[in-house]
Amino acid sequence: MKRRSFLSSTVGIGLGLGLGLAKAAVAESVPPASPRLGRRREIPHRKAKTTQMFKAPGFYPNALAVAPEGLWIGQQKLSVEQAREWNQPVPTNRDEAAWLVDWNGKLLKTITTKSRNTSGMAYGNGCVWMCANTEPQGIFQTDMNSNLVRHLQIPLGVGKDGGGCHGAQWHNDKLWIVANRLRALMRVDPKTWTPEAMIPIHTAPELPRWHDMTFDAEGFIWQVIGNDSQSFAAGKPGLVKYDANTGDVLLTVEFVAGSCDPHGLEFHNGALISCDAGLHPGWNDMASPDSGYIFRIDLI
Predict the structure, then answer these.
(1) What is the fold of 42-299?
(2) Residue ranges of the domains in the chain?
């Protein structure tokens, strides 16, 4: 088979619904920067600004999930490596919190989870689904009494685990996972833990990083992307908007200088909502002046 034919068929597999295990393994080879190979078109581009809303109840908010009662915020504690790099004490209690707040930031409930280096969360079926980004990896389904219901690995792993995660979203009774190893947005049946669909993550040479995802009111997917940088001043966060049915990239967005540093992502009351964790690879601890804030994103 010619290389061009092979790549085209691979993309068709990667974007198909009802993904079988064998097909999903092939989809892993899809280049992340080309959601639809063989199609050349100019992608619209806009800018965005951010507005602080309120601060999280504790340090390092790195995940969000909307619930009927308000907003869940997932905590990301310092890893052993990060604590040593920043000359901070290693947390003696590695369990990470999920805080439920109202839309003024008032703390309503706190639960503890076994997740580690949390970098994404979802809320569904009366549970929070906390996404680990270090060992033991996986998704920690936790009930409202801080009881671990299930610890599940991201599907299609070939080793001891399915790799790390940078986001999650509950949508139409399915769990979407930002699967780092696969470089894809994966839809999973939360009951059977069967992978059903994957969309390759859109990146560019100047924007190789990605983070959380969400759905807007019209059913489009939005995801945080950004550059590799060593300081807040050099950071260039952005967004990408996908067609959830095809994986096509519909829009890219860059944040104006001085904006909050986005990590988690949600959609509420007609606007995108994010959090500035204060914990960014390559930066000093709490380097962003908006560290710890939940904020609104507005396109301009």
Answers:
(1) Neuraminidase (2.120.10)
(2) 42-299
Please state, as a whole number, how many other Cβ atoms lie within 10 Å of the Cβ of residue 297: 23
Nearest to 119 by CA among 179, 152, 167: 167
Half-sphere exposure of 287 (CA within 13 A, CB side): 17
Rounded Cα–Cα distance for residues 18 and 162 (Å): 19
Q: What is the pLDDT along the chain (300 residues), one digit of tens a residue?
A: 444 343 344 434 343 434 443 333 333 333 444 444 555 679 999 999 999 999 999 999 999 999 999 999 999 987 777 777 777 777 788 899 999 999 999 999 999 999 999 999 999 999 999 999 989 999 999 999 999 999 999 999 988 899 999 999 999 999 999 999 999 999 999 999 999 999 999 999 999 999 999 999 999 999 999 999 999 999 999 999 999 999 999 999 999 999 999 999 999 999 999 999 998 988 988 999 999 999 999 999
- Whole-model pTM? 0.85
Q: Computed over its alpha carbons, how large is the radius of gyration of the chain?
A: 18
Backbone phi and psi for residue 7, each to the nearest 5 degrees, phi listed first: -65, -40
For the CA atoms of 129, 177, 186, 222, the dihedral, rounded to the nearest 10 degrees, stands at 130
For residues 221 and 268, give the distance between their C-alpha atoms in angstroms, rounded to a whole number: 14
Distance of CA 150 to the CA centre of its chain: 20
Q: Are 281 and 36 in contact (CB under 8 A)?
A: no
List beta partners, residue 128.
123, 142
Helix (H, G, I), strand (E, B) or coil at 43: coil
